[in-house]
Amino acid sequence: MFQNINRFPKEKVFSAAFEIETSKNVISAIYSIDKTSDCELVNYFEASTKESVIWTSCAVFHKSVFDEIGDFDITIKSGQDTDLWIRIGLVYPILFSWKILARYIFDKNSLSRKKENLNEKMNFLKFSKDEKNNPALKKFLDLNRYSLAVKCLLYGDAINYTIFKKSIDFKNLTLKKRILIRLPGLVLHLLLKINLLLVQIGWSKSVFK
Questions:
Q1: What average pLDDT does the chain have?
Q2: Phi, psi for 112 (deg, rounded to 5)
């Protein structure tokens, strides 16, 4: 990070790749950008349609970023990081390094998967105006809405499922995602169990992506 800060003194946001440790394996995270060098200057939304190119454990920010953008929104129970990355991505490019600098320990029972936090997750309404004129942001938000809609299906939350689904432009979803978001909750539960097993043995790197 120190080397990149010196190499690119005009940049304000620096991040790096991470890897995922499961009970069976360690796998590299997959990003939606091509590797052309040891690091890339990227648009956050275009580069984060798979894994986010900013991750709290391997990112460095110039203090002026927070003076302009603000801090974590502590009113959000789960998703404070995504909210902050979006606000940063609207203003700053990201200097992303392909060198793996952190490891995520996969836990199927993590906070972000709990049913009781669905109503406290960010709803993206604060970005409604921005996404109308920013196709990359719109696609990024739709992929996040898709993820939340699927969780609502899994937990039988029909109200929030309808809200998230209604806001999605389905052109931003792959055929696989368009099918999954319409499946009954019981079928999704079965598919989730299968995919979690695949993640643990390293045959899959994400759930429903």
A1: 88
A2: -65, -15
Three-state DSSP state, 12:
coil
* E strand residue ranges, 110-149: none
Give the tens place of pLDDT for each residue, 138-168.
999 999 999 999 989 888 899 999 999 999 9
What does the pLDDT look like over 123-136, one tens digit per residue? 799 999 999 999 99
The span from the CA of 150 to the CA of 165, in Å, is 9
Is the distance from CB of 51 to CB of 99 less than 8 angstroms? no
Tell me the C-alpha distance between 132 and 130, whole Å.
Answer: 6
Question: Residue 113 and residue 117: Cα distance in Å, rounded?
Answer: 8
User: What single-letter amino acid sits at 86?
Assistant: I
d(CA 35, CA 39): 8
Q: Which pLDDT value is given to residue 118?
A: 58
The two structure tokens encoding residue 197: 């097993």
Residue with tokens 């490019």: 93
Tokens of 175: 């055929």
On whether the CB atoms of residues 153 and 183 are closer than 8 A, the answer is yes
CA nearest to 122, candidates 169, 86, 166: 86
Would you list the DSSP string of 63-85? Answer: HHHHHHH----TT-SB-HHHHHH
The residue written with tokens 């200097």 in the block is 95
pLDDT score of 199: 67
